[in-house]
Write the structure tokens for this entry.
Amino acid sequence: MAPEPPLLSMSGITKSFPGVRALDGVDLDVQAGEVHCLLGQNGAGKSTLIKVLAGAHQPDDGTISWRGAPVTLRSPIAAMRLGIATIYQELDLVEHLSVAENVHLGHEPTAAGFVVRGKAAKASTAALLKRLGHPEVDPGRLVGELSAAQQQIVSMARALSHEVRLIVMDEPSAALDPEEVDNLFRIVGDLTADGVAVVYISHRLEEIRRIGDRVTVLKDGRAVAGGLPAKSTPTREVVALMTGRNVEYVFPERPATPAAPADAAGAPVLEVQGLAREGEFAPVDLTVRPGEIVGLAGLVGSGRSEILETIYGARKPTTGQVLVDGRVLRPGSVRAAVRAGLGLAPEERKAQALLMLESVTRNVSVSSMSRFARGGWIDRGAELAAARAATRELSLRPDNPSVPVRTLSGGNQQKAVLARWLLRGCRVLLLDEPTRGVDVGARAELYAVIRRLADEGLAVLLVSSEVPEVLGLADRVLVLREGQVVHTAPARELDEHRVLDLVMEGAPVASGRSVAGSSAAGSSADRSPADGGRGPAS
Amino acid sequence: MTQPVSPPRSSTDKIPSTAQPPAWRGVLARADVRTLSLLGVLAALIVVGGITKPDEFLDTRNLQLVLTQGSVIGVVTVGMTFVIMSGGIDLSVGAIVALASVWATTVATQEYGFAGILFTAVLVGVGCGLVNGLLIAYGGMVPFIATLAMLASARGLALQITDGATQVVTIDSVLDLGERDAYILGIPPLVLVFAVVTIIGWLILNRTTFGRRTVAVGGNAEAARLAGIDVRRQRLYLYLLSGLCCGIAAFLLIILSGSGQNTNGNLYELDAIAAAIIGGTLLSGGRGTIVGSVLGVLIFTTITNIFALNNLQSDVQQIAKGAIIVAAVLVQRRTASTT
């Protein structure tokens, strides 16, 4: 379009971390004065990409051009000098410093090179805050005393206190009320009118429609679509790009007779009755029978992971109960859940499941240690043999459980977590995004493993943001939207479009969706009018 | 060791799973670079000692003295290693040693003789560890703060008990163990205790569920919790263990000095933490070895001895210790990044 080169042009950006390729040849062009939206699920590579752009990560491969000239962003300071500012989702403010001190942190106005000119800093901060529509924020107040929205404004003021040409905003609206979102959008409009480019990250499609010019969609570390027109691309197409498959997968066959229409094949092993957590998800009922895979489908923020972690006892429910084999579990106790036969493969494998410094054996045996111990004394031979048997059953590679778990690929790390529960003899497996961070090629094998475990009698509860994964793997699907189960059906009666419609459906009254302000309000505002303010707590 | 599940593979192919090399070669292979370099430093120190003061340093009596002096702090360091490996810290060890040593040497306690002193020292240590553990594990206090508070109050209590006076031990069976020519199984009693504590510590860390849980909690507390480990109970036990080690160390100190003083164990916390760090224990938890920590203790005591023999004052010793800590950590960084 424009004859001059784009403000920013990233091409072929590749970045790997041990075990996973976070970015795989991503291209991104940003023009001066546009709002370029970056869309993608958790783990699609958005945050890695903006960290590369902010100079916080160095790409393994690829080039970055700034106003037509190639540049290397060696450090955050280098990016800042070019005029690239980033507002991270977790605001990087110092709570115990004042607003003005935060805004000027690292580039304080000084006299004689080192004496901070506090008054000048306050004056320029006040001017910035006024420009941002928040003149009421006192530059002298401590940042820790401000509301989340005000802190966001401070963060933005900090970005603007530099000479900026491009601002990256990582889910800036997540913590904001509707009026504040309106103010945010006004600021974005002012900035772009001045020729500043904005890279805007959000998974709220309405926002992107409202302020976006172009959209780039990331998935599995690749840009599956670049520079789509933000206002005219059909919503379904955008969501399908985010949640769909860019490669065809082979899902394992379901057993001919799905595990029990209601009465047959025995009682459910897992029963969840009216389980709810204030502010996270509304009462959920579900059952899983041995041999059955039940899937929870929903977008980010629909409460998927929270439900799973609450069932597992890692979060304490506000109401409701979890039963295994008809016996009620002590709420909020992981140990009770594990003892009853539950196992969780959490979403953040490295942070929540693995002991990265330890061997595969020790990672696998950690939940069943006492079985190899007499009086606390571990029989390491038996432990190793059992770990080897469990990892072989899942074809974990390399076939040597003594190697450190950190050297494994993402898919094999996931198998190590599954082997842990297999060894423990768990009966209900809770899988949270089982293929997150797993290379695309290794997923089919993982699917086959999960199906085989179910065929052997395990009950599986699966959470995934990838709709085809849920539909391909599960027997029954619960569709979640903003903390509520909106639909339940056998997987074979659903297709991707139907699920996407259910997942995206705006307020219960469908017409509400296009009214931007109200739908941007987020879950609480959406729900409360519908069921008379948060479902009754009992 | 035979393994029933494996399908018949081509008998002995690449996985050397059940092959058992000779014990010595196994030990050498498993002794990592860090341990070997610590042994190298210790050997170098012995060479320095042997060159500068050939007669005095290499004398059996002197070497025995080095080991004996290292025993007290060594026992404390074993407990400290467990705590640090779990991601915690225990700043109160020196103060607990002081409190245990004075409580165990009051006139009233000494009436119960040898057993009374031993029992009291251990009980006071465990009691202090229990308080630390409860505050940290169930009270949600940061280990640094909780044990700092224990440091202050245990020292205060020790001063209150003694009123600043040295409490002389009058029990012969205790004093006899501190004689220069006292031996059990041909080993000085203090050194024997240190050796036993080290071996038990090594076994607990490497061969028991307790050790595994310690490593898991230190390596990734959230993962440990989600794997079904009772993280809080484990933390409680770890501070109990550290307290127990302090109680034992206090008893050793009573034997060594024939008395109990409220100034005992001064700055032990720093020496024990430094020894563990030199030995390769990660301050953030999850990694460390008993062998490394013990070598750290031996390196420190050997330096102290060599400097004393060469009439160098303690200020020079302190500077040298500081330099060694920095050097050890820098070397470990380098080896960690290459492996």
About this structure: Residues 259-264, 506-538 of chain A have pLDDT under 50 and may be disordered. The CA atoms of residues 393 and 419 of chain A lie 8 Å apart. The first helix of chain A runs from residue 46 to 53. DSSP finds 19 helices and 24 strands in chain A.
